[in-house]
Amino acid sequence: MIPYFSKTRHQRDRHPVPPFLRGWVLPIALVLLWWLAARLHWSDSPLLVPPGKVWDTAVQQVASGELVRALAASLRRDLIGLAIGVSAGLVFGIAFGLSRLFEKMIGPTFHTLKQISLFAWIPLLSVWFGLGDAAKVAFLSLAAFFPVVLNTFEGIRSVPGELIEAARVLKFTRRQWLTKLVLPAAAPSILAGIHLALVYAWLATLGAEYLLVSGQGIGNTMIDGRELFLMDLVIFGVIVVGLVGFALNWLAARLERRLLAWRGRSVAQF
Amino acid sequence: MAHSSGTLPAAASVPARSNSGPARSAYSAFFGRWAGTWLALPFPLGLLLLWGVSAHYGWVAPQVLPSPQAVLTTFIDLAQSGELWDNLWISLLRVLAGFGVGVVGGLLLGVAMGLSPLFKDYTYPFFKAFSQVPVLGWLPLLMLLVGIDEALKIILIAKAALVPIAVNTYKGIENVPSRYVEVARVLQFSRWQLLWRVVFPAALPPVWNGVRYGFTHAWLALVVVELLASSEGLGYMIVFGRQLFQLDVVIAAVAVVGVVGYLGDQLLARIEVILLGWRRSGF
Amino acid sequence: MAQAGTLEIQHLSKSYAVKEGDLAVLEDVTLHIAPGEFVSIVGTSGCGKSTLLRLIVGLEDQYQGQVLLDGQRIVGTSLQRGIVFQEHRLFPWLTVEGNIELGLLNAPGTPAQKREAVREHIALVGLQGFEKSYPHQLSGGMAQRVAIARALVSKPDILLLDEPFGALDAMTRAYLQQELHRVWQAEGITMILVTHDVEEAVYLGDKVVVMEPRPGRVRRIVPVDLAHPRARGEADFAAVKQKVLDEFSHDSASLAEAPLKADPGAVPQLPAALWQFAI
Question: CA of C192 to nearest chain B CA: how many angstroms apart?
């Protein structure tokens, strides 16, 4: 009898650390190591800031309102870019999906442009739109645009043939066709596209702040921290960025679950 | 035949309600088999024309929009002088190194998390938190820690590739259908046999998907990091050209970036067909 | 000729722990199966027939009672007890040949002997010419035949079949029943078939074990004393079939299908946790 086939959850749970604690072991151990390293001065580098300092900086940033200002600036741009990118993306995606002609004429150009790695657009955009917020928003719109178009197009194209036939038999008008069949059927893909747009737009927000340095934002905070060798500020920035990323992901997942409850099982996005 | 370039064509080309989705439109029928190629041309050619005309009449300054001819000449110059190839080569080496590290790391991590629930309990939460920070979020931190040469780039590219690969590998292994595992149990498979003959082949589709995603992200990370902190490579060419307002150089480099990204993904897609040829009707 | 095994099932009982207490899936099942016999087991959903099979093959454990193969208590799975599931469960990344070879992976023998055995069994199920085909290229009936070959190639003492033809259309089913019968006569090994199709049970079996649900018990064993080959249209065939069906029409409420809710008698999904390596 091969042992591993019969190992039960019961046997595995006899492991000393209970399940809900296991996930904490690694991070806590790392923080402890960090704290120890700082305490015992394992390195003379000014970069070795103790965890406590990061906490102090965090408190200071929040209290002075710096954090709120920086985040607000970043998120404002993020949301404007998203709004533009997602709406344009939906329009194009639906157009591609519904019109074979449109897809054949504009499609190849679109697919070619989409190949260009996102950030390569920034220098061009900075020439055409200047170095300020306009260029950043333009870039964010682009970042959100591509995934929405692709997923919307995909969603509309994959409306199952059986449902289309059912709609024919039921004599749907053009409007009903769109609102009662195509859009609901494409909704999962469209929402997946918007989820991706959220992720990419946040990534792009940061990138835009690094590359088009003027103005305020959480990315700028981190760049400043780096230039002044303020490790604590940088680490603080990393944590904030991670939290915002997590929040956006969570929001998108919630939205998907809500709107797609008819699907039975929610698609758990990582 | 309309040379429409972005307006939603009139009702005629929306598939009539009395046809099912994939109906051949009147236009396809008219042009026959080459409909696809014929139709694809007017829009980009129109744009090209617009570009050329605007450059010719100087509607926009040449520093903002160089003429198509200028871009072409510059491209040829760069290619002939070898500058293009040198920078391309450096970028390729970087991305391969980073991607390689990311693939190995991602596969190892994903396999470990997939096969050992205990390992997963310990590492997955931290890993998930870690990956909430997009690649760029780590950039300033890493710059402080390792400076701005190769190490920075390789680490960032590796991280960009590692996350999707690890996740997809982990989920792929976790989702191996238990009906195959039961067959293996009845046929007395040993642990290794189960791994190599059931788990890995069954998990390969999602794993390869992760690899493709990983490459896209790796290429993305490469471009960013070269734009920000490099003295050679395609990204550097772009930045340098931009600073000197030599947009023709910029456009040429951007085009190459696009082509390489595309070819890389195509290569992975071809490999996918070879590795997963058995999958024709899905799983 | 393969080994034919004697199977003794003595007072077999199994229950699952559920929220409301213990759900008895099988209660005091006793069966004696002679070597080379073909036994059909019929019953509606929820009578535990699949669970019974899974206990015999060793995919389930924790039961009361005994299951003895040739006098030896069975422990876990073994190449001596083969099984064909309702889904063919062929590995999609292997060819027909590759899939059948799996049956011999852990069996003794030289590679040449194994190749020969694979060839033999491909011929046995009538799939010559399809050695290099992939499962997605085969029809449902062909895929099941490969599954049967895979189960038989290691010459087990006993072959278990869990509603093997349930997913196929009626014509293919009839054809495969014939084929299974031919294979049984050629190989002579003990076979136990679980099905909800009474005609199939009577066509193939030396005896039909009728089970009733909630909890799963043996209601009656109907012997089938008809000579082979059996003609489905003949009167004596119909008589036996009617005898079996009668078992279902008495007390129809107690034999009827359980209302729709989670059915523990159905094939349980093996959670990944059970086969992942515990380190």
Answer: 16
